[in-house]
């Protein structure tokens, strides 16, 4: 369904391939940042997207930049080092590699690469100056992280080709994604010339190019939706491309839409419900029936809140993709399930 250049993609088994579309700018990008309010599942979505791209025969790097080791937990592997590590190899030749960025490692690497100060950097580490530097100049952290990401994007193999076909970044949450990617401001505060400025200018060019998109994860809840809407506005103001809004854990409603409001207000034909249950061979005590009706009213109220959140989200002209709740928690099998949904959507 298209509404004013906006594509809403709801993927399920009943949809045809023509209705399952991933926006062209996301298909063409090589660098995918995945952000979202805490608890919306952005790490899970980033991992599923990496698997989806790898299923197409691509070599994909999945970058974690918050030092939480959440990617290692998802793939059930030991804590990841700050260097590229293969996680998954696929029959079609694709693979998923992972990189758990560490600020300290990135700073030491940076000093060695641009200033030939590897030995001095190690001495700085011993006296705790790294913490001092990144505290006094907090923008330096984002410059280092985005700089490392850019270095992996342009890295080449022995044959001169790109080391990775695509890179997916499990990014900071929506409340910080704009400042994280606004390397221009951080650079302005840090350096007027020299290697830091030169490197940052290359990062800026990459982040503002068609090679880069930002995907935003949300739930159909008021606070995540509000942060998502604000993040879209902020990213566009900074001239950064938004790929998709991914509505996570979006399940089909279990109540008729035309009855939801009435049920939420407590207007239920309890005798009719009891009769229908009896016809199905289910007989409940008065207490059990009352409990069931109370749960139904609560559920209808949650559906109402979701409808309000959906209406607010629909005002944003960005492609949307819904992902279902996975059963029994998120593990590697669940990641493949979500990857299959993304693949059907054209990712």
Polypeptide structure, described:
This protein has 347 residues and is α/β, with parallel strands linked by helices. It is 50% helix and 15% strand.
Summed up, what is this model?
This protein is an alpha/beta fold. Helix content is 50%, strand content 15%.
Give the helices and strands, then pairings:
Layout: E1 2-3, E2 6-10, H1 24-28, E3 31-36, H2 42-54, E4 59-64, H3 70-74, E5 85-89, E6 95-100, H4 103-115, H5 118-126, H6 129-136, H7 139-154, E7 166-170, H8 174-181, H9 183-190, H10 195-207, E8 212-218, H11 222-237, E9 242-247, H12 257-264, H13 270-279, H14 286-313, E10 320-322, H15 332-344
Parallel strand pairs: 2-10, 3-7, 3-8, 4-6, 4-7, 8-9, 9-10
Antiparallel strand pairs: 1-2, 5-6
Helix pairs in contact: 2-15, 4-5, 4-7, 7-9, 7-10, 8-11, 9-10, 11-14, 12-14
